[in-house]
Write a structure and sequence with these properties.
By secondary structure, the protein is mainly beta. It is built from no helices and eight strands. It has one domain: SOR catalytic domain (Immunoglobulin-like), CATH 2.60.40. A five-stranded antiparallel sheet has the order 1-8-7-4-5, with no helix packed on it. A three-stranded antiparallel sheet has the order 2-3-6, with no helix packed on it. It is elongated, with a radius of gyration of 14 Å.
């Protein structure tokens, strides 16, 4: 699996995707473990989620983060049972934050 920057936002303090692991389960689709780093300051500004997308922006799955992680940086959260269309070789992970809806995406190579 490769990790590369795709389309980054130009705002200050966007969530940084520091690691992604993708694992395939024949019966359950794909599991994505995503590690984020963000200068969470509390409920007013924190990394509030990430999603798995195709190159055209189609969202295949999303992980919402319901609270700040001020004292847990970086942190990893998982999303399971993501179904990829047949033949998909690359997806994008896009992270968001609550304050300005910052959005950063990285490309992830997935094996068929």
């Amino acid at each position: 699996m490769a990790l590369s920057t795709w389309a980054g936002a130009a705002w200050a303090d966007p969530p940084d995707i520091t690691s992604v692991t993708a694992q395939r389960s024949a019966a359950m689709g794909w599991r994505f473990d995503v590690t984020l780093s963000h200068p969470d300051t509390g409920w007013d500004h924190y990394a509030n989620g990430w999603q798995v997308e195709l190159a055209d922006g189609t969202v295949l799955g999303a992980r919402e983060l319901h609270h700040p992680h001020v004292d847990e940086q970086p942190f990893t959260r998982s999303l399971s049972s993501v179904m990829l269309p047949d033949g998909t070789r690359q997806v994008f992970i896009r992270a968001h934050c609550s304050k300005d809806d910052h959005s950063v995406a990285v490309a992830v190579e997935v094996a068929p």
